[in-house]
Structures are given as structure tokens and as C-alpha cells.
Amino acid sequence: MEKTSIYGLTLDQLTSWLVEHGQKKFRAAQVWDWLYKKRVTDFSEMKNVNGDCIKLLDEHFHIQTLDQEIKQESKDGTIKFLFKLQDGNLIETVLMRFNYGLSVCVTTQVGCNIGCTFCASGLLKKNRDLSSGEIVEQIMNVQHHLDEQGKDERVSHIVVMGIGEPFDNYDNMMDFFRVVNDQKGLSIGARHITVSTSGLADKIYKFADENIQINLAVSLHAPNNELRTKIMKINRAYPLEKLMPAIDYYLEKTNRRITFEYILLHDVNDHKEEALQLAKLLKDKRHLSYVNLIPYNPVDEHNQYQRSTKDAIVGFYGTLLDHGINCGVRVEQGTDIDAACGQLRSKQIKKDKEKAKS
Ligand code: SAH
Ligand code: SF4
């Protein structure tokens, strides 16, 4: 029987599992506390848990399944981790420092099938979904790293913006939220968690119906179908006339603000005309919208794209503001350490392939 990660279970699931395996219900709260409050890395360290229960857990679950391959630290305090999964696949996790707290960017899939033309993650087809345990474990690894530093720091925010399309791994993503959000555990507030999707409209409807306060970001990147299909082929399956009604449903149902991500690509989507089209597209929902303008992070393999000029960025921003659209330009973190999603991983895979050839 193959062991799975203990982090994959929500508190309810752990409780049922322990009861089904002949343990008392209260053991679940104890184990949970050791995992997420005291944060041990071995079942044998769970001092008030009886030997039988420890043996049972040890037989069925792993605590650590990720191996840290690389840890790159940037001058601004951003740390990028490259982890090896048990099956040898590589994933990335990033820790960023902001004035409001420490935020971790997690990966949800090995590669990505959406294949956006500007993205390093989409260069490599999806190999598989991550389990909920593997997503939680990324947070735990970063938290263990912080614990080792002894400065009493905790991960306070999460962005689901690493490699992969989270809405294409929906159920595991939801279990991940339930684990990290649990008040008896890491207790990371739902309002401090943001999930970004390339725009899978059917899943946006589903997400709107979840009774959860997690923030939603949608990667829009273009204000019309022609341009959006050119840079994001997902727009064929979910063009704007399918995506926008799903967003309207979400806004109506939750009354929560939504973020639209818009990468500025030089001479592709950064003209005044597109800024005007975008303002028009968002006009009726501008009270609940925020546009995050993202300076493009150049990816070696996508050399058809360059970053917009400063003037173009300022101009685009100004046009949106003039039309009453809330917006900002994303402050970049860790630009000296391959910070664009998927870059560290794709470079490492390339290096490994070259090594294998020689
Ligand atoms: N798959 C999801 C979440 C992961 S990508 C999505 O696409 O929304 C997170 C964000 O990073 C997305 O807005 C994506 O468009 C953006 N991104 C991808 N490659 C980038 C690059 N090279 N430079 C800047 N942003 C990039
Ligand atoms: Fe996948 Fe998001 Fe990259 Fe598009 S931007 S290829 S959806 S990870």
C-alpha cells in the first residue's frame, strides 16, 4: 500500500479516518495540533499521542514528501524554492515579503495545459495534478523554513499563482483551502488567500457557489476576443461572452471585489485603444473591480514578447484611471532570481536534459 501525505486530509477527514481505524475522536485534534501548531516533522515527536496511533499513522502516511532541490534568495528577501516530488517531478514555490505580511505563491499542477503564449509554465505540458497534500506541503515547507530562522514569523497570505491552472484541479484546490484556513491549524484567513484562473467560466460559477471568502483573480490580458485568443488559446473555449457572464454571476453572488490581471506586452496589448476597450468592458462592474497591471517578465522561449515601455505602462494606467477603473501596477519581487512563474523549473529541466545527453 502506498503512503500518502498526511497534509492532504482536512480535519474532518482526519477525524473520520482515525475513528474508522479504531482511534478515539479526540486524537484528531491532538495530531492536528502537532502538525500545524507545533509543526513537528516526524510522527514520533507527537508526545501525547499513544504508540498505537503513531504506528498507525506512520504505516499509512508521510509527513514529508517534498525534497528541497534549490533555494534561491533574492536581495529583496524573496525566496524561491524548487521542490522534487516523490515521483521526481519538479515544482516551484515562492515566499514574498510585503509590508502587510509574508505571502507564499503555490503551484497546483506539474506543468500546465492551458498553454498561454507568454508563460514559462505552459511551455511544458501538464504531467499531472498535485494532490491537496502536495499543495499544503509547500506552505508547510516554507513555514518550517521560517520556524528554523527562529524569528517567530508566519505565512500570513497565500496566492495560488504558481505553475498550473488551479481551477483545472478544483477539488484538490478546495481541500487545500480547507486545511490552511482551519482555525485550529495554520488559520490563514480566507480573505488573505487569492486564487488566479485563466478564466474557466464553468468553474467560476462553481466557485461563486462555495460558501468561502477566498479572493478571485482572473487573468484577462486582453479586452477583445481576437487579441485574447492570440495570446491565450483558452479564449477559444471560454471567449469573453462566456467569461464575463460567469464573472457577473460571481460578483452578484458574493458581492466581493474581483481582480483582473493584465500583463502589459509591448506593442501587443498596451495601446490606448486596448485601455479604452478594457475600461468599457469593465464599466458596469467597476465598483467591484481592480485591474492589476503586470509588467511582463521576459521568458527566454517566448522572445516574440517584450516588456512594455515605462511610458506605455503609465499611459495605460492613466487611461484606466481617467475612466474610473481602480487599478495599480504590480510591484515586482525577486527579479534577480528567475521570478516569473515556471522559469526556475523550466531552466532546471533543461539543465537536467543537457546533463543526461552529455
Ligand atoms: N494559471 C493561472 C494561475 C497561475 S499564473 C492563471 O493563469 O491565472 C499567475 C499569473 O501570472 C497569471 O496572471 C499569468 O498570466 C501571469 N504570468 C504568466 N507568465 C508571466 C510572465 N512571463 N510575466 C508576468 N506574468 C506572467
Ligand atoms: Fe497555465 Fe496560467 Fe501559465 Fe496560462 S498563465 S499557461 S493558465 S500557468
TrEMBL record:
Transmembrane segments: none annotated. The active site is at 92 (proton acceptor), 341 (s-methylcysteine intermediate). Residues 98-330 form the Radical SAM core domain. Its cofactor is [4Fe-4S] cluster. Pfam families: Radical_SAM (PF04055), RlmN_N (PF21016). Keywords: 4Fe-4S, Cytoplasm, Disulfide bond, Iron, Iron-sulfur, Metal-binding, Methyltransferase, rRNA processing, S-adenosyl-L-methionine, Transferase, tRNA processing. Its main location: cytoplasm. GO terms for molecular function: 4 iron, 4 sulfur cluster binding; metal ion binding; rRNA (adenine(2503)-C2-)-methyltransferase activity; rRNA binding; tRNA (adenine(37)-C2)-methyltransferase activity; tRNA binding. It catalyses: adenosine(37) in tRNA + 2 reduced [2Fe-2S]-[ferredoxin] + 2 S-adenosyl-L-methionine = 2-methyladenosine(37) in tRNA + 5'-deoxyadenosine + L-methionine + 2 oxidized [2Fe-2S]-[ferredoxin] + S-adenosyl-L-homocysteine; adenosine(2503) in 23S rRNA + 2 reduced [2Fe-2S]-[ferredoxin] + 2 S-adenosyl-L-methionine = 2-methyladenosine(2503) in 23S rRNA + 5'-deoxyadenosine + L-methionine + 2 oxidized [2Fe-2S]-[ferredoxin] + S-adenosyl-L-homocysteine. PANTHER family: 23S RRNA METHYLTRANSFERASE, RADICAL SAM CORE DOMAIN-CONTAINING PROTEIN. HAMAP family: RNA_methyltr_RlmN. Specifically methylates position 2 of adenine 2503 in 23S rRNA and position 2 of adenine 37 in tRNAs. Reaction proceeds by a ping-pong mechanism involving intermediate methylation of a conserved cysteine residue. This is Probable dual-specificity RNA methyltransferase RlmN. The gene is rlmN.
